[in-house]
Amino acid sequence: MIHIVTDSTAQLTDREIRTNHITVIPLTVTLNGKNYRDQIDISRNEFSNQLKTNREFPQTSQPSVGDFIETYKWLFQPGDQIISIHIGSVLSGTVKTAQMAANQLTIPIKILDSGLTDRGLGLVVLRAAKLAQSQNTSEKIMSQLKNYLSQITLVCFINSLDYLVKGGRANRATGFIYSLINLKLELSMPNGELKVVLLRQVLVLKKLAVYPNSFGVIPVNVIFNSED
Fold first, then answer.
1. Helix or strand run (H / E) with residue 114
2. In what order do the strands lie in the sheet containing 195-200?
């Protein structure tokens, strides 16, 4: 059996996890000194509400090496293989930690740095789960996943710098100017690298209108995901 493992940034639904037999290792969110397992102890909506109302900015941390080792050992049976697919290394050390755990075990584990997050990562994980039903080696699946990754474009538009200011990644003066002239941040991850572009709101709206029609005749999933 080929097991598919990912982390909670993939934003998979409970049904997707259950029906595709995917194992999700949660990241940890720290609020007011208390730790919560992402998507287990705290939902995405609850986290968003905390961002709005909590004076203290939440902190996130990747799973530990021990978390990965425990999960891999729990899944493995003789003859099994594991493919572990995670948030891009430019955003988190999760995939590096997964590799460290795999290196300590004799279990056949393949680690994939998706170079993505959120539903971009989710799409890759779901494709891996589908391939695991028909392919008999992790090598074949990894090869097809790397080809699939080249077809995915992840773009995020940030409406406000408020949370970046709260987290200390932008100062208050920058946040004020940003809102005053109605700029938006476009974040993309070409080839696993983080690219940031400043746009006027009118350009954002034009881009959103163009995206569904910008891929010619290639079958494409266009997902619009927003947070208040």
1. none
2. 155-158, 183-188, 195-200
What is d(CA 109, CA 102) in angstroms, rounded to the nearest whole number? Answer: 6
CA distance 111 to 63: 15
Euclidean distance between CA atoms 146 and 88, whole angstroms: 13
Q: Which two tokens stand for residue 27?
A: 């990241």
pLDDT in tens, 114-129: 999 888 999 999 999 9
- What residue ranges in the chain does DSSP mark as E strands? 2-7, 22-25, 28-31, 34-37, 59-61, 81-86, 109-113, 155-158, 183-188, 195-200
Higher pLDDT, 110 or 29: 110
Backbone angles phi, psi at 128, to 5 degrees: -60, -40
* 27 DSSP 8-state letter: P
Taking a C-beta distance cutoff of 8 angstroms, is the pair 186, 199 a contact? yes
Mean pLDDT score, 96-109: 98
In 3-state terms, what secondary structure has residue 215? coil
How far are the Cα atoms of 43, 116, 203, 207, 208 from residue 39, in angstroms, in the given order? 5, 18, 34, 31, 29
Query: Shortest CA distance to 103 belongs to which of 122, 79, 125, 84?
Result: 84
- For residue 177, give every residue at least 6 positions away whose Cβ sits within 8 Å of its Cβ, in sequence order, or none: none
